[in-house]
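FORM 7B - TANDEM STRUCTURE REPORT

SECTION 1: FIRST PROTEIN
SEQUENCE AND TOKENS:
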Amino acid sequence: MGEFVSKVMDWIESTHIQEQVADVDYVGLFSNPWFMVPFVLLILYLLYKQSFKDLIVITCFVGVWWVTGTEYMNTLVVGDELQVSKVLPVLFGGAALVGFLIYLFFGRSD
């Protein structure tokens, strides 16, 4: 199992996914009609179908993506040292979000 995980991690590092995500120009993305038209159509379709769970999940993904680009996230690691006092709110916020999504999908009945 450890060999499989190390192969997957090596593959992720070889694709440079983290660098690509960090280099995304979100202003350019949200002003690009090739992204915005399908995105807005998806949101309108989900509103029409009243699929609020999917809308909440999309909102959570966009929110997490936005939060990861803030200055607060850039200061989590100073030099080579992790700032534990800044990591704990992120950890608890992520746990609360995951708990909310689990409640949304498994705790409620429609």
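SECTION 2: SECOND PROTEIN
SEQUENCE AND TOKENS:
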Amino acid sequence: MVLNPAEMMSLANAEDVILQKAASAIEQNYGDEDMRVTLSTRWMPGSLRELSSDNITSVQLVGALKKYTRFQVSYLDAGWPEKAEVQLQVEMEVNIPTLTQRKQRGEKLQESDLTKSWVAIDLNQDQPIKNKEELIGKTLRNSLNAGEFIQPGQIGNSFMVNAGEVVQMIFQQDALQIVLSCESRQDGAEGEKIQVYCKETRKKYLTKIINTGEVQWLRTD
């Protein structure tokens, strides 16, 4: 015998129906073909579990989608409409660009470095970049292994300054301008702040990159 979806739901227990309706609520709000979720119960009132599955009328998201997400359950109790909250654990997989090989910090990403893969993410902390075009031509801020996805803080523009190279530090105050040769202690792109060391003064400075090999003094450390 083949059951239609309505008949299948009527045979399921209340907890299963709540999970099914919660999954539908996520799909309506966030769903696309590159996302899939698995739900499990973290906390649910015992009174809900004891209900007939036919009494569960709707399940809606409460707030943003997280690893542990609250849902509002609407149900009938002795014919009267009631509401209660449950907390479900959301395990998510997304089909996103990942690295085809290990890439070192400072390397520029090319199209051949990326492929789409299904990976599990932590909704509380991961924010993977989903569009491959946003990654091509960008420079990695830290080394990553093959199969890893990339987050916004891990990429930037090409470095204008590399650690260990000599840069010209410009100190400007009113009409006074001083230029010192310093050694960069960090890599960086235009507009980023890096630390440099000047042998002439034996001091370290916090600077901002303004051009290739040029930084602007911000403070003396």
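SECTION 3: OBSERVATIONS ON SECOND PROTEIN
Residues 1-11 have pLDDT under 50 and may be disordered.
The helical segments are 5-11, 14-30, 46-49.

SECTION 4: SIGNATURE
Preparer initials: ____
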